[in-house]
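Let us practice reading a record.
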Amino acid sequence: MLDISVIIPVYNAGQFLEKSVSSAVHFDEVKEVILVEDKSTDNSLEICQKLASENPKIKLFQHPDKENHGAGATRNLGIEKATGNFITFLDADDYYLPNRFDAEKELFKDAKTEGVFGAIGVDYLTEKGKQEYQIKFKDAPLTTVHYPAEGEEVFRGLLSLTSKTFGTFFHLNALTIRKSALKRAQLTFNKNLRVHQDSDFIIKLAYHCYLKSGIIDKAVAMRGIHDDNRITKIVQYSPQYNQRQLLYWKSLKDWSETNNLPSEYKKRIYLSYKSYDLAQKKGLTKYCNIVIEGLKNPEILKTKYRFNYYR
């Protein structure tokens, strides 16, 4: 049987936390639920303390200085404290479905498989949250990939280097990893990214570890959509969106250079980074830089971010 540590970073999620924890703690495969409280300003800490006192499988931690460090550093602390052989994540306003570990129980019998990912659905908790989500993401019922994949194909798909469309990112809520694989790859979340640290982690994980798709045609977890979801607040290609994307792709660019990735991968990451770098520029300077970069790397006009340049 799998022994799984479920890591839940907690920040101002008091109204959702009990449902999230109860969706995870009952699985036989779950050895422990690790709550890492990140200096919430609501009653989250009190709820964490109550839950931990009621069930020995639930463990509560805070950063040593009791300050707020963001989701990346908070998940890193959870990984450090985890004692299970497998690591999963769950956002404090989301929850697992009963089939969450059905694929994992079979796929991890193969020692080659270091991580398994699946699909997540959406649960509209407020009408405002629903409207904001649907404006940005239409009415996509699943966050998933379009076809089964494993190994390097997963990494190539995430970088849009496959011959067919791989699909959107899979979500941390639907990812299970061998802790030994994280240790071998020396992989942690980039604590300097306050947003997109999950996407950054997933791409790096897909390169360093052998991932395999599990249940991708139906949800194994649900994302709670409400008024305070950060994912719905940033307008695509707004200055704030461009700046956050720039920091995210710079993290990947620096990583690709440090790890000396094959030139095909480094170039794709560089072009994505450069598109957001160009988006920060204004006026004539911007268009001159676009022309110069286009002459050096014509492929930049073929990236999925190409329309970003002219805004």
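A brief commentary: DSSP finds eleven helices and eleven strands in the chain.
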